[in-house]
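Sorry to interrupt, but I need a hand with the structure work. Go ahead and set the record down below:
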Amino acid sequence: MRQLPDGGLVALLMAAGGDVVNLAAGTPEWPITPPEFVQHAVQALQEGIHQYEDPAGNMRLREWIARSLPGRPDPVTELTVTAGASEALGVALLTCVDPGDEVVLLEPFYENFLSAVALAGGVPRFVPTAGPDWAVDPDALAAAFGPRTKAIVVNSPANPTGRLLNDDELGLIAELCARWDVVAVSDEVYAAYVYDGRRHRSVAEIPGLADRSIVLGSFSKSHAVSGWRLGYLRAPAPWTRLLRPVHIATTGGAAAPLQHAVARGAQALPDSWDPARSMGALRDRAVRMLTAAGFDCAAPQGGVYVMAGTHGLTQEPSPRFVRALAERTGVLLAPATPFFADLRRGAGYVRVAFNRTESTLLEAHRRLTGRP
């Protein structure tokens, strides 16, 4: 319990109220939840789908997930539906990490990675990266691996930086995992949002990683159903056979009517439904807004966040700065300190979510800059 993060970011977000434009939480305001999902959720409830589903997940849903992923995993033996990607992360680490085992984390990292490592009894080994490009230092990465290493958790596109791991970095991770017999746990929740003609590379596509990888996915951001808590695990059949009993022991399965709703609703989505196209324009608007307000930032390669430096605006640490900024402007940003093992490294950065409507970003721009 002492290893769990203090939840400061969650407390800040929950405390936000009144006339505040919230760009701190990643909860989607955009895209709009597909009406087809909502209609089929209501239909599933009215049809009486209230009881347990196959713990591995609704087969129709697993088949649709398989068709959407590179390499077309076997929906019977390689996919498991979970109660969000958070459960998928916890199950993955509980399955491959014993107490005292080491887990490599690239810093900055999504705060929940620390929680999952702690609950599994693991020991984090951090590999710091630095802005503005947040590239992985090959020597630092290699030095983090050793005989006690059992897993590395990667996130591409990354929360909070929006960076994509490149082929050289993925190749090095594959080499190190093979050398030390390590599992790559890959959070690919933001894979739908990649910009400027780039292509997301899943670890399941990388030679040397495909057979020793566990991929985490989710519908929370891609289809704006974060409250439905629907995610999935993709893993080779031998790993899936180990993951599923842990999944059953932790949750027993995800909500049956909502699985039916996504399985049916996904088939009914129009061909024109492509939120990634509009998300790129929202990213550009957010970067323009932050630059005009005096922040130091570059356009992220993917995801739904901008990591912005505050060095040109203040010398205050980011938790204090975001509170003062919210009081002064009514715009709430997330301090970056929860994304670093050394809080001082995050003191000069904030994370800004741009999965918002254009009108919300325009209002935030007006408040931060004093002009439209």
User: Anything to note?
Assistant: The longest strand covers residues 149-155. Residues 8-32+273-369 form a domain with the Aspartate Aminotransferase, domain 1 fold (CATH 3.90.1150.10). The radius of gyration is 20 Å. The chain has a mean pLDDT of 95.
